[in-house]
Fold these 2 entries.
Entry 1:
Amino acid sequence: MAGFLPKAIVSVVVFAYGLFNVALYGLIAIKRGLYFKKPTEKQTLELKIARDRMWNLSKDYSGLSHHFITLTNGFKFHLVSNVKPGSPAALNADKPLVIFIHGWPDSSGIWRYVAGSPDLQESANVVAIDLPGFGGSGRLEKYSATRVLEHLTELILTLRMKYGVDSDSESRKKRTIIVAHDWGCVLSMRLASEAPALADRWILSNGPLTKMVESNIRRLLTSAKKMLNTALNSPLSSRTPILQAFRTISPILRQLSLSGYIFAMQLPLPLVRYFLTGGNSALMTSIHFNSHGKQKPTPQEMADCMSSTMGPSLAESKTQTADGESYPTGVQYDRDFSKILDMASYYRHGAASGRWQKSLETITGLHSIAGEKVLRRTSSGTGVFDEGVPGALKASSTIVWGQKDIALDPHLCLDGMANYLVKDSQVVMLPQSGHFTPVEKESRAALEAATKWAIEGEKGDVQVALQVSFPEAHVVVRR
Ligand SMILES: *[C@@H]1O[C@H](CO)[C@@H](O)[C@H](O)[C@H]1NC(C)=O
């Protein structure tokens, strides 16, 4: 009973704040004139063309062809690549493997510029995947940390085999680089922490390191509490400590107001669907309209963005790859935003911070690619010290951060990052860039430059490499 009351209160507050945000976002959409705006005939046509361009399996998209990887449990991942997985070209080429992982509310389509770069395609085997429940991949019943990370890990292990990184007799024959954004970044940070052998370099953009954010929140709350205690002990001079306490927790309050949409996604599913797609998909329209930074997207760019969120339509669901493969069944392709509730479930089922219970297959698979370095680390085993702080990334990482991200408070998301990085890691700041780094013109060039630097064996300083395409890019943390 003791634990019941606070939990009920929390639920009520979450529910109320969620509802408040549905109303708030609705009002904003009405004010912006988006809510009642039906798409014009031209927009509808533009979207249809964009979806055919992006999802028609019989055509290449941005120089990348469509493929599927089916896991041992039958789950089907959709991906695009410049080389067919498992082909002699993929197995034999002496080129690094680069895997791009998208965020929310996107799909492999968000990498149309970076993974679409002819320069990268020339120098690497490039793969952009759709996470479970997004784009053209299959759906999961539950998007818990264990389900999502198990599927993702098996996919990456399979890709490493099919692109000649590992074979039955030998592992790590080529470099593997993972480039990830937003939710893809959240999940990749978990992998870099809990399964670091999966890649040699992690390029991670504008997604929170959940364990660090939690720890930052706890730290700020503790010091605010101390200040309030001081105020209580000397009521006469209490004004300053109360103000200080308030200032201390202001990043938390700011992040809470920025995260209103997360609360809205905890509501009952019909309300969630309404929140995400109602008012002529006002929310998605407004997210994508603002995803290009200072530039206003052209109608075609808008259509590409919406297509990336929506995935294949009924028309594309009937297409086939050159190998005769098609999109997974069990999706209502005739419905607009057919996977929107799957996408929302990442926020509902604890994929970011829940415990990942690794299966025996995963442990064995990770062990087989770990190499000496990682094995020694685990076997020297003095425990806590070796493991670092909870959530610390255990592989070389380059965090590329659009500084003007309005969705993520920089104090909560970056303060203390140095303690979470290993040797040969950096945080690179991109001033003037916003959240959607793979889309904005300047930041996508920076991401491409970082990827190129990793592909070419990390010669020279990453800041110098990035400044060629983004002169103001600068390293703020270096390990
Ligand atoms: C997919 O693309 C092919 C090749 O361009 C085209 O012939 C076909 O009509 C397209 N399929 C659909 C359903 O649009």
Entry 2:
Amino acid sequence: MTDSSATATHCPYCSLQCGMRLSGGAAPQVRERADFPVNRGALCGKGQHAAALLAPAARLTTPLMRDRGELRSVSWAVALDRVAAGLSAVRAEHGADAVGVFGGGGLTNEKAYQLGKFARAALGTASIDYNGRFCMSSAAAANRLAFGLDRGLPFPLADIPHTGCLILVGANPAETMPPALRYFREVREDGGTLIVVDPRRTRTAEQADLHLQPLPGTDLALALGLLHVLIADGLVDAEFVAARTTGFARARAAAMAHWPERVERITGVPVAQLRLAAHHFGRARTGMVLSARGPEQQSKGTDTVGAWINLCLATGKAGRPHSGYGCLTGQGNGQGGREHGQKADQLPGYRSIEDPAARAHVAAVWGVAPEALPRSGRTAYELLDSLGRSGPEGVRALLVMGSNPVVSAPRAAHVTARLRALDLLVVSDVVLSETAQLADVVLPSTQWAEETGTLTNVEGRVVLRQQATAPPPEVRSDLWILRELAERLGGEGDGGQHPVTRVRFDDDPEAVFAELRRASAGGQADYAGISYDRIRAEDGVFWPCPSEEHPGTPRLFLDSFATPDGRARFAAVGHRPAAEEPDAEYPLYLTTGRVLAQYQSGAQTRRVTALTDAVPGPFVELHPRLAARLGVAEGAPLAVVSRRGRAVAPARITEAIRPDTVFMPFHWPGPGRANTVTNPALDPTSKMPEFKVCAVRLEALQGERERVAGSGERI
Ligand SMILES: Nc1nc2c(c(=O)[nH]1)N[C@H]1C(S)=C(S)[C@@H](COP(=O)(O)OP(=O)(O)OC[C@H]3O[C@@H](n4cnc5c(=O)[nH]c(N)nc54)[C@H](O)[C@@H]3O)O[C@H]1N2
Ligand SMILES: Nc1nc2c(c(=O)[nH]1)N[C@H]1C(S)=C(S)[C@@H](COP(=O)(O)OP(=O)(O)OC[C@H]3O[C@@H](n4cnc5c(=O)[nH]c(N)nc54)[C@H](O)[C@@H]3O)O[C@H]1N2
Ligand code: SF4
Ligand SMILES: [Mo]
């Protein structure tokens, strides 16, 4: 139902940032917003039921502070004084880098910007990173290596139906971005070919002309095999390679070492399917490769994405209309969250914190001396792993804003122990997440429809999520929290190591955005020409947009790539195994991912009845042959055991998965927490953990009887 009196805003969840309207009043309702181009009124169940999160019963309504072991309500003054005193004490005793900050890709651009500024200019710490490291960091790194610039999609979603052949690698938009599935379906309706690469026959794979079902962790070999076929069968666009790329000779040599039979042995994808896929892609006039977390959340994710980009470069399917490589980023502000300075090595505008010119520019906007800005810090898992440790490497106090690592970090039991070892844990959240439950101080923050801010969606389109309803009286915005903390911390410094001056922190989002525009000006992610009024008038503005007269940039790279010589760079990469391959003790692969009705750590969606009714808890997806060998019936409890730990959840038996692989969604805490089991092996470039591959064994738990699967035997 359309209700034009309701406020135009956007969904609280994923990177599609579907447009919606919210009616005001005591019980706000989500309404359709058919005029917003990305989703044209369509919403998934999470968006439809998002208003349930606004109910006071679902969320935090006052600050909480730990007192004799229990979290109890306190006033803001008491909570903020405690936080500021605790952070100052750690800084005085252990140095500024012992105070850590952990942000989130769901935070608005304004919040992400302010959090990075707070870390560098109010705390003086290098120890800041965020959950986007766990999300699209491998694709971001590969994009920068190949194209000199990282924007997830170099074209709007609306271009997708016009492409001749689309390869979706490890992406399941049927569950993770349902309103976008239309664009992928339309590829086929318009006569193109859709190829899906996934170890599971997902609802997305069911839409495809061709489904390649490789072993988890072998996408790099698969891409090399496809390039081999393209080269061997004369499908390389030599003119494009010569005019617009560098490095083909080495990529070619690597591909020649991955002949189809070898690739079949590594991946399990039959040679005939490999050839068919290569021929579809090579012969199509235009083509796209889009990846999501499947190939990226691997300890070789950066190289893997590089190998898929190679396919676009070799066939002239990049930097041309209706062609190119793209990463389907995930979180609400998965794109903007990676541009404005909450990354360990980054300053606003996608600038490098190690670049002297970038430091000087941003220091001038903030009113600090460039020397006062810290250098690069540790990445997300490294930061979490250092919590509570003594010595110079240890982070002793942590502020978490917009993440729930107790559920979502790899090797989560270890991360939970590290969080417990902190001198001070402060969590700003909208709900009492599992991480907030461990905190010394919990700060209740306003959420999506209760505040205004910008987010940059999966396409690179900056949208305005407008306030539509009032927050509960004792809830404050993250921007206000950061301003209050900065005021309390101001001027103290850390004994001269990083001189800290009193820097201005606004709490009005439009004022913060105005400052972000100046800080980003001249950087790669240039927002200088974007304003709230323009976004309202234009259904969003695509960055880079360097001036108010500039139209914004929906399509990148059509004239040249963003590298110094304007050419895209091939990646010279070879196959290597996952950090942990199955063996006699742990004979199966575990991979992890998502279901439609739950979001991420589930902190928000597990509080919405309609969504928990749809998918009430965790499960282990396994093939009937494996289930038969174990003697497991549908719904029977099953333990998934790895070198990190053991998770228990009911069996869900399906032919959609390979018999040598099991799958768990990661949305739940407790015994069924998938991340108890996952491997924190990191990609050397992006520092992405290997969420998508580890070795496990299954144990069927039937009353007192316990049976162990597959000892020694591979299926
Ligand atoms: N419902 C829902 N939607 C969401 C989210 C959510 O939590 N719930 N989260 C949002 C976020 S932050 C993100 S990042 C996106 C993620 O969106 P997706 O990447 O689409 O989601 P995943 O389920 O993590 O992984 C996609 C697919 O990768 C497959 N896969 C597993 N291992 C491999 C492998 O080794 N190779 C290949 N090729 N594929 C593999 C899985 O079987 C799965 O079907 O979703 C966003 N949207
Ligand atoms: N095994 C496995 N683990 C994974 C993945 C996987 O595929 N497999 N995927 C990884 C990926 S891609 C991601 S993105 C991460 C995500 O994992 P998390 O970082 O845990 O993401 P969320 O559950 O969205 O947590 C966001 C938290 O911030 C709160 N919040 C929301 N908006 C705001 C706000 O504006 N301000 C504040 N202060 N708080 C807010 C929410 O209530 C919630 O508690 O998980 C990663 N973990
Ligand atoms: S697809 Fe994403 S943005 Fe759209 S309604 Fe669902 S969760 Fe919200
Ligand atoms: Mo993500």
